[in-house]
């Protein structure tokens, strides 16, 4: 009888220990769930990636990049001809570096017109007649700044101004590691990521890119890069 009683006590003790252990595990699991909910509530668990840039836009010419930036500003609700732009939706789009963008990416119209007239006169003197008119698609493609070596970082932030409709603040020519959007030509991108035939440290700025847009890929295919 004494042996039987001892076995019963041992089994009862084991069952009590197992129950206490299970209760502790349940409490620990509940605590972890509460911690996770608390962290998610603070919006702290997000996939940040290695670097900030998420969008890479490749296009053939500076003039094309200028139109892309102007369209981006327009989509955000503004007009692309002012540093502080009133939005159609009541907000404001502020752009830093817009004057520099227009200066470096616009077509120098006067110089181009003079060069075109000079070329016409040279051809006229040689052949005795003016060359035929160029097709419309040629004018659409080349009637802009056709420099094919460029790269541009764009940072998109909330506007620091006070108010509910404070809008968006765009910083052009920002460092690539703190940019959200990178617009570049193929040769400009290659010069960015290569350094004397080796991979440059600036190539790390592309490590978290999620969207790549090829604009006028047929033109870039014919470029030397």
H/E element order: HEHEEHHHEEEHEEEH
What structural class do the secondary elements suggest?
alpha/beta
Share in β-strands: 15-25%
Biggest beta sheet attributes: 7 strands, mixed
Average pLDDT figure: 76
Sequence stretches where pLDDT stays below 50 over 5 or more residues:
1-5, 84-90
Rg over alpha carbons: 31 Å
Task: Write down how many β-strands occur, each being a DSSP E stretch of 2 or more residues.
Answer: 9
Amount of helix: 40-55%
Please, how many helices? 7
Query: What gross morphology would you assign?
Result: elongated
Placed side by side, the strands forming the largest sheet appear as: 2-3-5-4-6-1-9
Q: Can you describe this structure?
A:
A seven-stranded mixed sheet has the order 2-3-5-4-6-1-9. α2 packs antiparallel against α3 (98-105). The protein is of the alpha/beta class. It is built from seven helices and nine strands; from the N terminus they run αβαββαααβββαβββα.
Quick rundown:
This protein has helices spanning 2-41, 62-75, 98-105, 109-127, 136-142, 186-193, 217-221; strands spanning 55-58, 84-86, 92-96, 151-158, 168-172, 181-184, 194-195, 198-199, 211-214. It is α/β, with parallel strands linked by helices. Helix 2 runs antiparallel to helix 3 (98-105).
């Amino acid at each position: 009888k004494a042996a039987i009683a001892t076995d019963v006590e041992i089994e009862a003790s084991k069952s009590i220990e197992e129950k206490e252990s299970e209760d502790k595990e349940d409490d620990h699991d509940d605590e972890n769930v509460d911690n996770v909910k608390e962290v998610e509530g603070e919006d702290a668990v997000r996939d940040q990636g290695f670097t900030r840039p998420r969008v890479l836009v490749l296009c053939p010419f500076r003039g094309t990049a200028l139109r892309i930036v102007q369209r981006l500003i327009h989509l955000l609700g503004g007009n692309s001809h002012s540093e502080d732009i009133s939005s159609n939706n009541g907000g404001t789009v502020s752009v830093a570096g817009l004057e520099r963008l227009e200066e470096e990416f616009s077509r120098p119209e006067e110089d181009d017109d003079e060069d075109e007239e000079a070329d016409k006169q040279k051809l006229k003197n040689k052949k005795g007649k003016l060359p035929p008119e160029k097709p419309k698609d040629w004018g659409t493609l080349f009637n802009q700044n056709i420099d094919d070596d460029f790269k541009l970082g764009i940072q998109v932030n909330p506007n620091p101004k006070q108010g509910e409709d404070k809008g968006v603040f765009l910083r052009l020519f920002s460092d690539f590691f703190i940019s959200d959007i990178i617009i570049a030509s193929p040769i400009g991108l290659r010069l960015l990521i290569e350094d004397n035939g080796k991979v440059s440290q600036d190539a790390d700025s592309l490590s978290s890119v999620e969207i790549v847009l090829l604009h006028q890929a047929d033109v870039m295919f014919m470029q030397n890069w």
